[in-house]
Amino acid sequence: MPLKTAPSPASAGTRRKPAREPGSKPSRIGLALAGGGPLGAIYEIGALCALQDSIAGLDFCDCSAYLGVSAGGFIAAGLANGMSPQALSAAFIENSAAPPDRFDPAHLLQPAWSEYGQRLRLLPGLLGSAAWAHLVQGRSKLAALERLGRALPTGLLSGDALEAQIRRQFSQPGRSNDFRELDKRLVLVATDLDSGEAVPFGLPGWDHVPISRAVQASAALPGLFPPVKIAGRHYVDGALKKTLHASLLLREGVDLLICVNPLVPYEADPEQAPRPAPAGIPQLVDGGLPLVMSQTFRSLIHSRLELGMKRYEHSHPGTDILLFEPDHRDAEMFMANTLSYSQRRHLAEHAFQTTRAHLLKRAEALTQVLQTHGLQLRMDRLQAPGRGLLGETAAGRSAAALQRLHRALDRIAELHLPR
Prior knowledge:
Oligomer: single chain
Shape: globular
C-alpha cells in the first residue's frame, strides 16, 4: 500500500512544512475515493475505518471537500452526509444498521427490466430492416445482422434500486440529497456518454442534480448498468476518463489530500510474492480469461492513476498527498468474491488490518507529514494486536485469554507462598 507525498525541493519529499503553530488556521483536508465496484466499496470502508481509528484528529465526516468516482461516490456521499466510516461498515458490511441505512446487496442485482422491454420493442422493426437490407439491397448477412445490435440492452442490471436506497438514506433528519444544502464540498464524477467528457456533479452548474442520482450515474459501469438519463443527457461510470479525478479537489485549495484506490494490478511472481499465488496459479494466464481480463483492467486504470499522481506533485507542490491502496502482491484482494455476506466481512477486516500494518511500517515518514496538519498517529492502537474492525480479532482474544491465565496463575502462586 504505497503512501506517497507530493515532494518539494525544500524538503526532499518527507516534510515540506513546519508543524502548525498553536491557534493557527486548521488545515483543509480533502478525501478522494476511486471506484472498484462492490469490492472497491468494501476495501475503502475497511481502510477508512483503520485510518480514522489510527490517526488522532482525523474525522472523515469533517473534511473540507470530498470526491467520489463510481463506488467511491457512494462512500463519499455518505461521509459528506455525516455517516462515519463505522456507520458505513454497519450499513454495508455488517448489515447491522437500522433501516433505512441498512444496505441490501440485492439492490445491486435487480435486472434492468425496463431496458430489456425497450430493446425488445425495437426488435420487430430491426428484423424487418435487416431482411430488407439482405434480400432487397443485396447486403451481406453479417452487414444485415449488425443492425440488430440496437436490440441488445445497454446494461444487464438496474441502478434504480440503489438510487432509491440512497435517496431514502439522505432524506433522514440531518442529511440532504441536495449538493447545495451540504456544508462541505462534494463532487461526484460521471462521464457524458455522448461527448466522453467528465462531468463533476456537485460543482457550480452541476449541483442541481440530486446526490442519489449523481451516485447512480457515476457508478453506471457500461455493459453492467444502463446509462443514466439526466436532463436529456446520458451518463456512465466516471472512471472512463480518469481513475481518480483528484485535480478537482486540488483546485479547491486543500492542504492535505487523502486518496484511496482499491484496485491495483497483481504481481504474480511466486519468487517475490509474500504468499502463494491466487488459487495456486503460478501465472495469471493459467487462470483463464477472467484473471487475464481482471489484470488488464486493473493495469489500465492504475497506470492512469500513476501518471496523475506524478502530475499533481508538480502542479500542486503546496499540497501533501497521501495515497492508500492494497499491496500489489495481495492475492486475497485480487481473487476476492464479494457476492457472499461472510466474504464481505472478511475482506473489510482484511483491508482494516493491512492498512494498520502499513501505517505502522511507515510511521516515521507519515508522522512528519501528519504533524504538519495537526494530526498524529495513535501508536498505542497501531501496536495493539487484537484491534479489529468488526470487534476483537482472534489473535487479540487469544492474547487476552493468555493474559488472564497468567494473572490467575500469579494469584494462585501468591496464595501458596509461605508467609
